[in-house]
Design a protein that fits this description.
By secondary structure, this protein is of the alpha+beta class. Helices cover 55% and strands 25% of the residues.
């Protein structure tokens, strides 16, 4: 009898946890869609800072993630980038992406890897965010 009570209690707890996880998944998906849709608005602004988005990888998981692969196509002065960010200070996603791109670009210029050349900067909009700098053999 005690085993049946325990089993029923465990089933209830598992059901509750499953429901919670499904709610988190739904909320995460909604936030993911919001981020991805917000990218369309800021990509032209990012292009003004000298970076072009080459690819987007979307992770539909817990936590969700968006992987943005950028290529630097033009040198833009720090003053112009600062001005662009100031004009768009209400766009926090823009600021985070551009700040990460500039920092990664400054870092890659200091790295000397002989037969390897810098090709792209990847930003993972995940928790926590990550920045990757890609070098390939020349």
């Amino acid at each position: 009898m005690a085993l049946n009570k325990f089993t029923e209690s465990l089933k209830d707890k598992v059901a509750g946890a499953t429901e919670f996880i499904n709610d988190v998944k739904d909320e995460s998906k909604q936030k993911l869609v919001s981020y991805v849709n917000g990218l369309g608005e800021i990509l032209p602004i990012i292009a003004e800072t000298g970076y072009r988005l080459n690819a987007i990888d979307i992770e539909v998981s817990i936590p969700p993630g968006v992987n943005l692969q950028f290529e630097k196509v033009q040198d833009v002065s720090k003053e112009k980038i600062d001005s662009i960010l100031e004009q768009n200070k209400d766009k926090t996603l823009l600021k985070g992406i551009v700040t990460s791109l500039v920092a990664a670009d400054e870092f890659h210029k200091k790295v000397q890897l002989g037969n390897y050349a810098f090709t792209e900067i990847t930003i993972d909009l995940s928790i926590p965010p990550k920045v990757h700098i890609k070098f390939v053999r020349k």
